[in-house]
Amino acid sequence: MATPQQLQLLAPLSGVLTALDQVPDPVFAGRIIGDGLCIDPTSSTLCAPLAGVVSDVQASGHALTITSDAGVQVLMHIGLDTVNLAGKGFTRRVEAGQRVEAGQALIDFDADYIALHARSLLTLMLVVSGEPFDSLVGSTGWVEVGQPVMDVLVGAAGGEHPAPVPGDAVCSSPINLPNPNGLHARPAAVFAQGIFSDHPSAQAASASQRQIPGGNHGVADGPW
User: Fold this and answer.
1) Which pTM value belongs to this model?
2) What distance in Å separates the CA atoms of residue 72 and residue 10, rounded to the nearest whole number?
3) If you write DSSP's letter for every residue of 156-208 in order, what string do you get?
4) In the chain, what percentage of residues exceed pLDDT 70?
5) Residue 7 burial (CB < 10 Å; 0-12/13-18/19+)?
6) Is the pLDDT assigned to residue 54 strictly greater than 70?
7) Dihedral angle computed from the Cα positions of residues 164, 166, 168 and 170, in that order, rounded to the nearest 10 degrees
8) Domains in the chain and their CATH numbers?
């Protein structure tokens, strides 16, 4: 067994740390998508907290995911309910599949516009692949962009994903998810939680195996 290694994550923004428990959104506060930290930003450019590949970037520009070479997936989500802005106030600097370095600019955003038109500017950085981590800054206080904030333990048991088992698809009971903006972060997490609570064995399935009930195939792991 390989010895676990540490991967240091940097603050993607400057601002004031807010305890994740205090985020006014039950999915983020409940760590359903993943654990991490929250920043009330004073800067207006989201920067990469680690080196890796942009594995997902929302067309609206409000969220993206970077996957490290070791498979650690880190989601950054600017603001709350910002998907409703349909891209207004956001300028993407990167595209899916692009390799980025730690500290590289990812998304510029108009903080004044978002503060006026979205529910909150609170920005999340979450480890969504399940690895444990140690916080280097606590849950409150001030951070500067590029400051080390987390040490992720790569290769720890908590971050390992069991290999998918071939077999029939597992279907949940019907889950109603009315949402005019589609299956983004919070409804996707609620959807996944509903499937897994009905069928614990589905937790071992890969993203490609998780099926939307009713025959419409899809994944419960995003988009964000």
Assistant:
1) 0.75
2) 14
3) -GGG--PPPPPSPPP-PSP-----TT-S-HHHHHHHHHHHHHH-GGGGGS-GG
4) 68
5) buried
6) yes
7) -10
8) 5-158 (2.70.70.10), 161-224 (no CATH)
3-state DSSP call for residue 54?
strand
Place of tokens 């498979």: 71
The catalytic residues are: 77
Q: Rounded to a whole number, what is the distance in angstroms from the first to the last CA of the chain?
A: 33
What tokens does 57 get?
Answer: 């970037």
Q: Say if strands 63-67 and 133-135 run parallel, antiparallel, or are unpaired.
A: unpaired
Quick: pLDDT tens for 134-180.
999 988 899 999 999 999 999 865 544 444 455 556 665 665 554 45
Q: Which residue has the tokens 């720890």?
A: 156
**Which tokens hold the place of 123?**
């920005």
**Strand order through the sheet with 90-92:** 45-47, 105-109, 90-92
